[in-house]
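User: I'm new to structure prediction. If I give you an amino acid sequence, what do you actually give back? Let's try with this one:
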Amino acid sequence: MFETDVKVLGAWPSPFVMRPRIALNLKSVEYEFLEEDFRSKSPLLLQSNPVYKKMPVLIHQDKPIYESLIIVQYVDEVWASGPSLLPSDPYDQALARFWAAYIDDNWFPSVHGIALPQGEEAKAELMVQVFEGLALKAFFGGDKIGYVDIALGSFLGLLKVTEKINNVKLLDEAKTSKLVGWAERFCSHDAVKEVMPETDKLVELLKCFKPDLKNLLVDRT
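Assistant: Good question. You get back a string of structure tokens that encode the predicted 3D arrangement of the chain. For your 221 residues, that looks like this:
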């Protein structure tokens, strides 16, 4: 039986649940993933996150931590011997936190539309191009996956679903070649491959349970 003092509560399709899992994988931390049902959350989840009752929840040494980006920061600080996720310089840290907040507050709401409303495609393309100008190295964190990479990369699965359902190309080699290269490197990384959902699998899931599942998938937590 697999035993560890690190557990992640969440559902595999959720981009927010992906974040702590990627962070733990990057740190080579063994953890137990406790699969949750969007429609019927477990007593452990409700007990662990009594304020928001949302996933993900990280349980470390019987202590719960919630909010996906806060969990990533916690993982970075607790397992400091692994590769750093946040920059060491205070200014660079502030910038990383700014862009992560921007992703959740401004970028993703503009591009996540499972069905983009009429006239929203141009806005979505513009928001994608914002990050094209930031993709100057292999990753936003430099030569290694970092905090901003995790914040943005966790949404690539749903971004691909948006492209497929709307028959649009938001990550376009001709317009956003740097971002396309970054996305390929991110998704092929060993820490990401096992938790990145397959596009077709996500599409089928959304068809079966929409609109409720769509709302849950994109609900910030």
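You can read the tokens as a compact description of the fold. Here is one thing that stands out. The mean pLDDT is 86.
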